[in-house]
Design brief:
Strand order of the largest sheet: 1-2-3-4-9-10-6-7
Number of domains: 3
Number of strands: 19
Low-confidence stretches: none
Number of helices: 18
Oligomer: single chain
Largest sheet: 8 strands, mixed
Structural class: alpha+beta
């Protein structure tokens, strides 16, 4: 007889269809190769977790490390012993399985409740995440100020009023912690005075634990009864709801091989998580080519919005393109009050669907010539940056356009960069660019990314970046800002969409994307052979050169518009 259904710490924060596929006995997962970029992210995450663990072992006397124990039972026994001994920190703890609650899990760090968090003799869960978990907080913000504790004393936090946890984008981290909290409660190991969870992110500065109360109302969710259409619930309340639903999904899924099996509870909806899900190809087949969630890839509707449309009989782009929008809105908007901009979102989705139905990719929304600084007779430089996975700029690419034609000028470092080496490369590239600008050149880029990087580097001490920022208002042109005033893009107004559909430019590479380039950079630096490294370097330079040529072609195309 099969054992009880046990869900891990990712179930409540992950797509419910993934849980359904996992427990449906008719489904077989055939693992495919892991994308190079995704594998690099995994590797970096594991390395960061190891670095934090090493720091805790050095900083907190009495820390117990369970990561090397071979079996589940060994770890559980060792955890109980560490708890009885009062270990201040436990690394790599496998928590006792909770068969009644249908949970299992292994947590990165357990911190003994004391001082500012928890209290009593029990423990609080902490996860290590190789991403940022804090953002700037307005003085009048409703959300609580960040509570930060050093690794040397992880249970003693102090408030940082200028910062807050990124509740909007990192809620998944907190749902994972809520899962561990429930496991600790079931095992009798939870700290006594309040439910807390901590995250060690890779925010600037020394690593710290950012603590969050799991029973505070911080999660904004849909509510039929609230006047505003939404309310704030605690992370534990939200977790319990999401976990209970996925348990229901699993319980129905395990019955699918039986005669007269109940109807499956969920159906695929394309979301960002699908990009890295091993079940994606199966879901894609079930969706169909015209599914709304699949085709509306820019400004996509969220899961609730798509679900409401499906209940109203609108599943495809063709359905939405032909619907009577005025008749749809009253019933639809009553079900999506969690979105302040729900009406504008559905109107934009409807607009995109209509354009898709006619095969239109770019729609002109203005009349007459489009003003672009200069007439093309002077020296014009097109500018594009490439960054590694850890967001260090390793390639500064420039296309110089003058009376003699165009020439590509790259400044590149084929190595893993730290702050100092990144600044050195930036100073060389920007000294060259400042000389060109001083001689009268104008600089064109696409989107605000390049300027934001100049601001970041200037704040880090790059004198040339600071000097260049003074020239931005008069000598730099962001072509994206020009394009968005005059065009609506079915798939957005990114450089690749506009250069291809508008200017007729095509990249030489079959897979031109920033994410792909990060994987190529890994090969360019760490490839096993000289041939592999050289091929990746050539590919990166060609890709960046195509980016700046595409920027030039967009500028040419804009000047041709009447």
């Amino acid at each position: 007889m099969p054992g009880p259904i046990l869900l891990d710490a990712y179930a409540a924060q992950s797509c419910a269809v993934k849980t359904q596929h996992k427990f449906d006995p008719r489904m077989t997962l055939v693992p495919g190769p892991i994308d190079d970029h995704l594998q690099e992210l995994f590797d970096l995450g594991e390395q960061y977790e190891a670095d934090v663990a090493t720091a805790l072992l050095a900083l907190v006397p009495g820390t117990v490390d369970l990561r090397g124990l071979p079996s589940h039972q060994d770890r559980v026994v060792a955890l109980r012993a560490a708890a009885e001994a009062g270990a201040p920190v436990v690394l790599g703890a496998t928590l006792p399985r909770d068969a009644a609650g249908h949970r299992l899990g292994q947590v990165d760090i357990l911190v003994r409740g004391a001082d500012r968090v928890g209290g009593g003799a029990g423990y609080l869960p902490v996860e290590v995440k190789n991403h940022r978990v804090r953002e700037r907080r307005r003085p009048d913000a409703e959300s609580p100020a960040a509570r930060l504790a050093p690794l040397s004393d992880p249970s003693r936090w102090v408030e940082a009023p200028e910062a807050r946890f990124r509740f909007g984008t990192r809620e998944g981290d907190l749902l994972q912690l809520a899962h561990y909290w429930r496991l600790l409660e079931a095992a009798g190991l939870a700290a006594a005075d309040g439910a807390w969870g901590g995250v060690v992110g890779n925010d600037p500065g020394e690593p710290v634990v950012t603590w969050v109360r799991l029973d505070e109302p911080v999660s904004r969710t849909f509510s039929r009864t609230a006047e505003e259409g939404w309310t704030r619930r605690s992370i534990l309340t939200r977790y319990d709801h999401e976990f209970a639903f996925r348990l229901q999904v699993a319980e129905v899924a395990v019955q699918q091989a039986e005669p007269e099996a109940p109807t499956l509870l969920v159906h695929p909806i394309r979301i960002d998580e699908c990009r890295r899900c091993p079940w994606w190809e199966l879901c894609r087949q079930q969706l169909g080519e015209d599914d709304l969630s699949l085709r509306l890839d820019k400004g996509p509707l969220d899961v609730r919005e798509i679900s409401v449309l499906r209940r109203l009989g609108i599943r495809t782009v063709a359905d939405l393109a032909t619907v009577d929008l005025a008749g749809l809105l009253p019933e639809y908007l009553a079900e999506v009050t969690h979105r302040d901009t729900a009406e504008s979102r559905i109107r934009t989705a409807h607009h995109r669907s209509v354009l898709m139905a006619t095969g239109t990719v770019l729609e002109r929304i203005s009349d007459g010539p489009i003003p672009v600084t200069g007439d093309g007779s002077g020296v014009e430089i097109d500018f594009d940056l490439e960054a590694s996975v850890d967001q260090r700029i390793y390639l500064w690419g420039f296309l110089v356009n003058d009376a003699d034609g165009s020439r590509y000028v790259p400044f590149v470092a084929w190595q893993d960069l730290d702050e100092m080496t990144e600044l050195e490369l930036a100073e060389r590239a920007l000294a060259w660019l400042r000389d060109m600008v001083d001689r009268g050149a104008s600089v064109h880029h696409y989107s605000g990314y390049e300027i934001s990087q100049l601001e970041r580097l200037a704040a880090s001490g790059a004198a040339e970046a600071a000097a260049m920022l003074d020239l931005v208002p008069d000598r730099f042109v962001d072509l994206y800002e020009v394009v968005k005033q005059h065009w609506f893009g079915v798939h957005g107004l990114g450089l690749k969409q506009v250069a291809t559909a508008g200017a007729g430019f095509h990249w030489r590479d079959d897979d031109p994307s920033g994410l792909s380039s990060q994987a190529w950079f890994h090969d360019a630096v760490h490839g096993a052979t000289t041939a592999v490294r050289d091929e990746a370097r050539h590919r990166l330079l060609a890709y960046n050169e195509d980016d700046v040529v595409a920027t030039r072609e967009v500028r040419r195309w804009l000047r041709e518009q009447q």
